[in-house]
Amino acid sequence: xxxKSLVEIVFHGRGGQGAVTAANLLVAAAFKDGNxxxxxxxxxxxxxxxxxxxxxxxxxxxxxHLRSEIYEPDIVIVQDESIIELVDILxxxxxxxxxxxxxxxxxxxFIFSKTFRVATVDATSIALKHDILVGGIPVVNTPILGAxxxxxxxxxxxxxxxxxxxxxxxxxxxxxxxxxxxxxxTTEVNK
Amino acid sequence: MTMMIDTGNYIAAKAAIMARPAxxxxxxxxxxxxxxxxxxxxxxxxxxxxxxxxxESEHSAMSACIGxxxxxxxxxxxxxxxGLLLMHEMLHWAALxxxxxxxxxxxxxxxxxxxxxxxxxDSISQRDTGWIQIYCSSNQEIFDTVIQSFKIxxxxxxxxxxxxxYDAFVLSxxxxxxxxxxxxxxxxxxxxxxxxxxxxxxxxxxFGNIIAPMSYxxxxxxxxDAQEHAKTIIPKITKEWEQTFKRNxxxxxxxxxxxxxxxxxxxxGALGAESKAAIDELQKKGLKVGLARLRVFRPFPTEEIIxxxxxxxxxxxxxxxxxxxxxxxxxxxKAALYQKSDAKVIGYIAGLGGTDVTYKxxxxxxxxxxxxxxxxxxWYGLREx
Lengths: 191, 385
Fold this sequence. Notes:
- The complex is a heterodimer of chains A (about 190) and B (about 375).
- Chain A is of the alpha/beta class and about 190 residues long.
- Chain A has a single domain, classed as Pyruvate-ferredoxin Oxidoreductase, domain 3 (3-Layer(aba) Sandwich).
- Chain A is built from five helices and nine strands.
- Chain A has helices at about 20-30, 125-130, 140-150, 155-165, 170-185, and strands at about 5-15, 35-40, 50-60, 75-80, 100, 115-120, 135, 135-140, 190.
- In chain A, strands 2-3-1-4-5-6-9 form a seven-stranded mixed β-sheet. A two-stranded antiparallel ribbon of chain A has the order 7-8.
- In chain A, a hairpin with a 2-residue loop joins strand 7 (about 135) and strand 8.
- The radius of gyration of chain A is 15 Å and the shape is globular.
- The mean pLDDT of chain A is about 95.
- Chain B has about 375 residues and is of the alpha/beta class.
- Chain B has two domains: about 1-245, Thiamin diphosphate (ThDP)-binding fold, Pyr/PP domains (Rossmann fold), CATH 3.40.50.970; about 255-380, Rossmann fold (3-Layer(aba) Sandwich).
- Chain B has 13 helices and 15 strands.
- Chain B has helices at about 10-20, 35-45, 60-70, 80-85, 90-95, 120-125, 140-155, 185-190, 215-245, 270-285, 300-310, 330-335, 360-370, and strands spanning about 1-5, 25, 50-55, 75-80, 100-105, 130-135, 160-165, 175-180, 255, 265, 290-295, 295-300, 315-320, 345-350, 380.
- A seven-stranded mixed β-sheet of chain B has the order 3-2-4-5-7-6-12, with helices on both faces. A six-stranded mixed β-sheet of chain B has the order 9-11-10-13-14-15, with helices on both faces.
- In chain B, helix 12 (about 330-335) links the parallel strand 13 (about 315-320) and strand 14 (about 345-350).
- In chain B, helix 1 (about 10-20) crosses helix 2 and helix 3 packs parallel to helix 5 (about 90-95).
- The longest helix of chain B is centred in the middle third of the chain and has 33 residues, at about 215-245.
- Chain B is globular, with a radius of gyration of 20 Å.
- Classes of the chains: A alpha/beta (about 190), B alpha/beta (about 375).
- The interface between A and B is medium-sized, with 19 and 26 residues.
């Protein structure tokens, strides 16, 4: 659990997986939890569905002056495990940093778990279980959000669920909230 | 009052409709598009009840705003880069005709090569059109400045259009919190627009007709006087805003930790916010560097710059270049000090083409300047490869 005043987070996902939405919802939840400075932004370029993309989030106790990209994150979130082979997800990660991965594997299955704190959650299965699909594709960002309070004490599951509930109304909202709970309950952390 | 966590563009759209313009005319262009989209959504929900005119180009957008403004109503538009440049003729027209139009311009590179990222060459190239130019550094400042700008533009001693500039993506597409006052609070601060003149079929006047050289000369002088008035009226209006809303992003400048400064960094836009993090680090190291974030580029704050130069030497970072000369702010700051100050002025070009400039970069620029090692008109971070 980090107690830093500023936490910088990089999301790695594929175009269409909702990395930008996840970053936005995360900072909305963080703001509810009393973090006065929050910021979420995408990397802009040629965005294509399925191509590796990044999104950024900053969470702080006080107003954030930074406007630049994040080069030395505290937390890296991998929405799609296959990206690890394409992108250097560890680039710039702080020594005491954390990696959260959507995977069926366990933290010890990743070689970098020897040096970094690694958390795993099977967000894809959770999305399929709760029927959270867009165009037949599981939307992993809600379960990912549910896993974050396990690795970051600046954000509570309660706030995440409240933000998710206001984003998706009715039955969809209930399913998404259940998915965050499942993710929170099943996230495994190596240290 | 409610908190809104959203992008600079959606927050600009919210501010625009809360100012109750009777007419919005705009044409979409990356990265301004979501301002237009945001306003269109408010038309759909019924929150915006004014006339929303879809036009076929930015030249037409500005023309429609001029028509509406001449008919005596509050008008708003937004654009970026090539859109702003396509408006060029009508930008002169709006200012010369003394139309208090308010426009957001999202600072984006001019092509070719095609590039959608941030630099200020679009708006800097329009500096002689007569528009007031304000540069913002946060989403909250964008909201507050849009509302304030109508009051500035419509002030009886100004009556000029206002261009609010903010960085492509770095602000336009970054979500940050902004405090949104109630509609009543906005209405109290910014009452309904009362035009000083208007085109009226029941009271016909001629307008925009051919005029003799001396009359035109007077038109230009009146515009210059209006810009001079704006130098004192803009800080008064931001102060008035502060009394109600307890926030002030600065008048012509926002000063940050300049108390004992031996050097003052002058930067603008998103770089101006990032600079604060650099100043914090520099002062931790014992370097006496403060920040004056330039908010208003037209009218140019000559007197304020002279005042700053009496306290400290100046370091200027321009995210623009007047090709064949130097950064526009560096150039004008030196001119302002001519025969008025012995302060050193050190200039950098940085962040053109949307290249990222971090607080560590700004720290390095300032440290080098303090050590007297900066080359004349130095381009920071330009790789050789």
